[in-house]
UniProtKB/TrEMBL annotation:
UniProt-listed Pfam families: Lactamase_B
UniProtKB keywords: Hydrolase, Metal-binding
Origin: domain of life: Bacteria
Ubl conjugation in keyword set: no
Domain Metallo-beta-lactamase: 12-175
Name of the protein described by the UniProt record: MBL fold metallo-hydrolase
SMART domains: Lactamase_B
Lineage: Bacteria, Pseudomonadati, Pseudomonadota, Betaproteobacteria, Burkholderiales
Source organism (scientific name): Hydrogenophaga aromaticivorans
Biological-process GO terms, alphabetical: glutathione metabolic process; hydrogen sulfide metabolic process
Family matches, as Gene3D superfamilies: Ribonuclease Z/Hydroxyacylglutathione hydrolase-like
Length: 253
């Protein structure tokens, strides 16, 4: 499998490229609309064809590139089925692996950050990777105070499902704000200050309730746009246009 980790600095989002070496087909996990040109250059340099985009959840801090990729190169849009988005081609459900060439991705429903959040596990030739979205971050986790978030559900998702994976599973989060790139399940169990170190459910819910985080500055634009698989809002304020700039036409190949 061909694997690349790509960083978008405006929203501190990691996009992950997975590709089958035999077929040349690729997928992008959590692609960002203002990083399309960068991702296109990577695909072209590796002589890959984008077949699929895959989102972990409906994002509140950036616009997904799923729709624009589909319009440009005909790639399919995959996202959690329970959101019921009419723009989605492949509805993701736990227990139903996603296959792309020789790549198998196993979806894990991990609610709490949002109620329909998914993480994705991919095992390939001895490499066991978990794309944890916002459910589990390096030394942290996603917030639980919007989009039907639920601290109890997140605690159960992480401690009951993700921490049940082998300790050597590599954890690739959707974001990091300190330029960290990868962790492991064992590391997060032992040192994550929110969910690791034997934290109890009561301790975690109390901690999350006391964060007093500011209202997300992009949520009122990002969530409606992402419910349409990445439709850029026409009324986007000037200072936020870098999150969703209009891309010039560019062809894959």
């Amino acid at each position: 499998m061909i694997f690349r980790q790509l960083f978008e600095p405006v929203s501190s989002t990691y996009t992950y490229l997975l590709a089958c070496e035999t077929t040349g087909q690729a997928m992008l996990i959590d692609p960002v609309v203002n990083a399309i040109d960068r991702d296109l250059q990577v695909l072209q340099s590796l002589r890959l064809t984008l077949a699929l985009t895959l989102d972990t959840h409906i994002h509140a801090d950036h616009i997904t590139a799923a729709l624009q990729w589909k319009q440009r190169v005909g790639s399919q849009i995959a996202a959690p089925a329970m959101d019921g988005l009419p723009c989605v081609d492949v509805g993701i459900e736990e227990g139903t692996p996603l296959q792309l060439g020789g790549i198998t991705v196993n979806p894990l429903h991990t609610p709490g950050h949002t109620d329909s959040h998914f993480a994705y596990r991919c095992i390939d030739h001895g490499s066991d990777r978990l794309f944890s979205g916002d459910a589990l971050l390096i030394d942290g986790c996603g917030r639980t105070d919007f989009q039907n978030g639920d601290a109890t559900a997140l605690y159960q998702s992480v401690t009951g499902k993700l921490f049940a994976l082998p300790d050597d599973v590599l954890v690739y989060p959707a974001h990091d704000y300190e330029q960290r790139r990868v962790s492991t399940i064992g590391q997060e169990k032992s040192r994550n200050p929110r969910l690791g170190q034997g934290r109890t459910l009561e301790e975690f819910t109390t901690l999350m309730a006391g964060l007093d985080l500011p209202y997300p500055k992009f949520i009122d634009h990002a969530v409606p746009g992402n419910r349409h698989c990445g439709l850029c809002p026409e009324d986007l304020p000037e200072q936020m246009r870098e999150y969703c700039e209009r891309m010039t036409q560019s062809h894959q190949g």
